[in-house]
Design brief:
Blueprint (H helix, E strand, L loop, with lengths): L2 E2 L2 E2 L4 E9 L4 H8 L3 E9 L5 E9 L2 H13 L3 E12 L10 E9 L6 H6 L3 E2 L3 E4 L2 E9 L2 H15 L2 E9 L3 H8 L5 H12 L11 H8 L3 H15 L2 H4 L1
Antiparallel strand pairs: 1-2, 3-10, 3-11, 4-5, 4-9, 5-7, 6-7, 8-10, 9-10
Helix pairs in contact: 1-2, 6-7, 6-8, 7-8
């Protein structure tokens, strides 16, 4: 950080969406081989070297989700794939989340994820990761100028043998305008749920709150809160927004 007189020079923050493809990732292989997409929500520690990730699988047909589960279970990159019993079927034919979705818990080796590598270079995971057609879309922010960002991305490309493209970039002081624009298209309840999740650290690492606590904050049931939040995430992380 440069010093001007006795005061440090202000380092602007930058928000990016990174399109990433890298080896040995179960989400990329599963979405590349099926007509499903995934939304990665959070990761929990598991016994041993593996971690357990919480995902939403979405598709136009339930058979597509069954196929993704079968493919994921057959990969040597996953330790276990557990599907929640409850399915969510959406009546809106143009739903960005697809017509059906299913919550999954998948155990895998974190060394095959980009999460720790991105964090080591100052890229802070900012929101759920969307995965479709063999690519991951990571919303992140970083305190660095664009030259430094470029150097860090080059290092990650070499270190992880990854293809990384920047599909969206917004620098301070544009954040306020970007956040306002991002909320367009959401219902009042969806906007409330998403902004509350951001404020209470739901997307932090590690997670700082639970869906039950957030539902109580809005005085609604956990199931209703999750419905608002998942639809907000699907809208905000749709391909039209992140690319």
């Amino acid at each position: 950080m440069a010093i001007v007189g006795n005061e440090p020079e202000k380092q602007d923050a930058t928000r990016l969406t990174l399109e990433i493809q890298h080896p040995n990732c179960w989400t990329l292989k599963a979405t590349e081989q099926t007509d499903c997409g995934l939304i990665a929500h959070t990761v929990y520690n598991s016994p041993g070297d593996a971690v357990k990730g919480h995902f939403t699988a979405y598709a136009d047909e339930t058979d597509d989700i069954e196929e993704l589960i079968e493919v994921a279970r057959g990969l040597d990159l996953t330790e276990s794939v557990v599907a929640m019993n409850k399915r969510h079927d959406f009546s809106e034919r143009d739903s960005r989340l697809g017509n059906t979705s299913l919550e999954l818990f998948v155990e895998y080796d974190p060394r095959n994820s980009m999460s720790d590598a991105l964090l080591s270079k100052g890229f802070i995971h900012d929101a759920p990761v969307r995965v479709h057609d063999g690519y991951e879309y990571w919303p992140v922010f970083v305190s660095a100028d664009r030259e430094a960002i470029s150097r860090r991305l080059d290092f990650l490309r070499e270190e992880k043998d990854a293809e990384i493209a920047v599909t969206r970039i917004v620098s301070d002081p544009e954040f306020g305008m970007a956040d306002s624009a991002a909320s367009e298209g959401l219902s009042k309840r969806q906007r409330e749920a998403f902004l509350l999740a951001c404020d209470m650290g739901y997307y932090s690492w590690p997670r700082e709150t639970t869906t039950r606590e957030m539902a109580e904050e809005l005085d609604i049931t956990k199931t209703t809160f999750l419905e608002h939040l998942r639809k907000a995430e699907a809208e905000l992380l749709s391909p039209e927004r992140v690319q």
